Amino acid sequence: MMKRTLSAIFVAMAFGAPAFAGTTAVVQGGYYTPNLVNDLTAAGQTVTTISNYTAASLEAYSAVVMYGNTYTDTVALQNYVQNGGTLILTPWSGLNFGVPAALQTFQNGGSPDFGSSNPAVTVADAGNPLLAHVSLPDAGTTTIGRINNIGVAVGAHDVADWADGTAFIATVNDGLGEVIGINMQVITSDSSPGVIDQAWATQLFVNAVDSRAAVPEPASMALLGAGLFGVGMIRRRKAAGSLR
Q1: Which residues are CB-contacts of 203 (< 8 A; sequence separation ≥ 6)?
Q2: Which CATH number applies to 21-214?
Q3: Within its chain, how far is the Cα of 72 from the centroid?
Q4: Closest of 139, 113, 137, 149 to residue 203, by C-alpha
Q5: Is residue 50 predicted with pLDDT exceeding 90?
Q6: Number of CB atoms found within 10 A of residue 116's CB
Q7: How far is CA 60 from CA 13, 44, 56, in A?
Q8: How would you class 162 by CB atoms within 10 Å of its CB: exposed for 0-12, middle for 13-18, buried for 19 or more?
Q9: How far is 218 from 79, CA to CA, in rounded Å?
C-alpha cells in the first residue's frame, strides 16, 4: 500500500503542477479599441491591458497581444517568448517596427489596409488547433483591416492565407515559447475593430491565447521527470524484492 501511495504522489506532483495558464495582456496604444479585450473576457478569458512592459513584468502573462503601433521592446518580447510565453502579433507589427527574425511569422513591410471587404481564406493546415471551432468567413462577408502584400516568413509555419495570396495566420517557435501572427487588425479603431465581435474571429483569438495551455512549464517538466524516476525506482525495488 505504501508503495502504491508513493507512486500516486509522484504522478500527482508531475501532472498536478499548473500548466502554462494565466492572464492575457493586450498592449494598448494609439487608436486603441477595447473590442478584443471585451470579447475575450466574455468568452471566459482573463485579460488585462498594459501600456508598457519589461522582460520581468511580462512573466506574469501566459499570452501577450500587440500590434506594433505602440510601445515596443523587442528584447523583452524575445526573452518572454524564449522563456515559454505566447506572443500574438497583429498589424501593424511588421510595418511599424522591425520584428526580429526569430519572432517573425510574416515578412516585415507591406502596405496598410484600414478597411476593405475580406477575401476568402485558403487553409494550409486544416488540423491546426488555432482553427478549432472556427468557421472562417466567405469572401465579402465582413470588413477587415490588415497588411497587404506580405507572405509567411522563412522558417514559419503557414496555417492559413487570404485567398489573394496575402498571409493570414502563421506561427513560429523560439526557445520554449511561440509566436502567432494573425494578419487582421482587431485592436485599433481605424481598422474595422467590429470584426472581432464575430464568433469566428473571437474563437480564433481564444484559440491563440490558449494555444500553450496544455504545454507544461519547465518546472512541471522537472516534476514529471522526478515523478517518473520515483515510480521507476519503486518498481525496481519491488521487482528485486520478489526475487529474494
Answers
A1: 43, 132, 133, 134
A2: 3.40.50.880
A3: 18
A4: 137
A5: yes
A6: 13
A7: 23, 18, 8
A8: buried
A9: 15
pTM, two decimals, is: 0.81
Q: Which residue has the cell 494609439?
A: 30
Domain parsing of the chain, residue ranges: 1-19+216-244, 21-214
Q: Measured between alpha carbons, how far is 23 from 175 in angstroms, rounded to an integer?
A: 21
Q: Locate cell 497583429: which residue?
A: 90
Cell of 192: 474595422
Residues contacting residue 202 through CB under 8 Å, at least 6 positions apart: 39, 40, 42, 43, 196
**In the chain, what is the straight-line distance between the N-terminal and C-terminal CA atoms, in Å?**
20
Supply the Cα-derived Rg of the chain in whole angstroms.
Answer: 21
Q: What is the pLDDT of residues 159-210, one digit of tens each?
A: 999 999 999 999 999 999 999 999 999 999 888 889 999 999 999 999 999 9
- Gap between the Cα atoms of 166 and 159, Å rounded: 12
Q: Are 19 and 211 in contact (CB under 8 A)?
A: no
Complete DSSP assignment for 22-85: -EEEEE--TTB-SHHHHHHHHTT--EEEES---TTGGGGEEEEEE-SSS---HHHHHHHHHTT-
Beta carbons of 147 and 112 less than 8 angstroms apart: yes
